[in-house]
Each structure stands twice: as C-alpha cells, then as structure tokens.
Amino acid sequence: MTAPHPLGDSHMATFVLVPGAWLGAWVWEDTADALRGHGHTALPLTLTGLAEQADRGGPDTDLETHIADITGFVERNDLREVTLVAHSYAAAPVTGAAARLGDRVERVVYVDSAPFATGMRMLDLMPPEEADRLRREVAESGDGWRLPMPPFEVLGRYGSVEGIDADREDVLRARATDQPFGTYTQPLAGPAEPGADVDRVLIACRDFTGMLEAGVPMLAFLGRPPWRRFDLPTGHWPMLSAPADLAGLLDEAAA
Hints:
Layout (H helix, E strand, L loop, with lengths): L13 E5 L10 H9 L3 E4 L18 H14 L5 E6 L3 H10 L4 E7 L16 H14 L4 E2 L4 H4 L10 H10 L3 E2 L1 H4 L13 E7 H8 L13 E6 L5 H4 L1 H11 L2
Parallel strand pairs: 1-2, 1-3, 3-4, 4-7, 7-8
Antiparallel strand pairs: 5-6
C-alpha cells in the first residue's frame, strides 16, 4: 500500500540513514549506493560506541549521546531539507533529533519501527522478563554497559531474519558490535514531535505489516494522516535482505 506525496513532483532528497542496534553505517552501503543511483544524496551515519566508533563508547553512552550524534552531524554539515531514516532502535534517537532540528528536517522515515513518545525507552518495548534478562547479561558479560548482539538463532526474537542469506549472516556476525546499554535504559527526554509540516513516512516489513493489519492499538496512529505507509515484504533488516527494494521505496517516498 502506498500513498501519494502531497507535493506531487519528485525532487532529489538528502537522506541521513541511521542504523539500528549493534550496527554501523556499513549496513546501509547497498541501500545508499542504490539511492545515489536514483540521484539522491545518501549519508549513512554510525552512532557513538558502534562499528568504527566503538572506541568512543563507554558506560556514559546513552540515548542523549545518540541524539547528539544525529543533530551534530546535520548541523556540522549544514544539511537542509533532510530526510532522517530510522531503522529499528534508531527510532528512539531519530525521534529526539527530528524534534530538535526544526526546519532542517523535511521528512522522517521509520523503517520497521515507530516514533517514541516522551519518557519512553527501548526496554519498554519488551516484556519485563526479557528486560531483566538483558540487564543480567549486561552485568555479567558486558562490563555493566555493553549489550552483545544475540546469536543469529536468537536474533529472530527481535525481528524476522527473512531474506538474510548465509553470506549476509556471516557479515552481520563479523561486523556487529556491542550496543551501549544506556541507549536502552534512558527515556527519551524533551519534545518528541517534529514540526507540523514535516512529512511522516512508515516503511513496514512483513511482521510489522501484520501487526498493523491486526489493529494493534498503540500503532493505530500510523494508519492515519499525516502518516504515509509503504509495505516491503521482507524481514526486519531490509537493508541487508532487500536493499534495492528499500531504496526504491525511499525514492518513492521522496517523490
């Protein structure tokens, strides 16, 4: 299901691509290349404590750190009319950054994720027993602040791994880094709404589409204006399982 953009005519967009937990800018490489092929500017971003920024992380790395990463990147590069793209965990810092960047933001796109409300944190999205299990794991094997990526067979609890073949699984295992756990435990502070004229887009992968079709009450707002929805029939990591298709939908959303 797609919806027309109210502006009608297509134009080239500036995409800032923010990865989910355990991942860095590298995970967006194929999608970014495809977006550039459509004529857009595509800027994948690695957050503090992850991938090539792993040595900058520490016990004090939290959600505010990652919001500052995004706002700082946009402001330092004097980016305008930005499309912020959030995959999975990145919904939390992108929500905060979109509210703080004001008229620099033209559009927010949530890939298999949804915006956070003020006071919400990642741990609130999981059952209490799972949150407790993560706390124990961080305390026992993560020096009190690092959350390792779970084994691939467990990763499916966090989202469908449909479409990730053996080669991509190997890349995921090799390149994933521990997630600073403060990003899961700190609630989103301050405003959580971008400007009223910011375009709001959801790209829903298969499981998320199922939840929307089932009428999950807390997601009902995503089916109403000003939200526009695009469905992508793949697993939770479309930048790995269907990067060109994801880029095509991002291009369509910007049209």
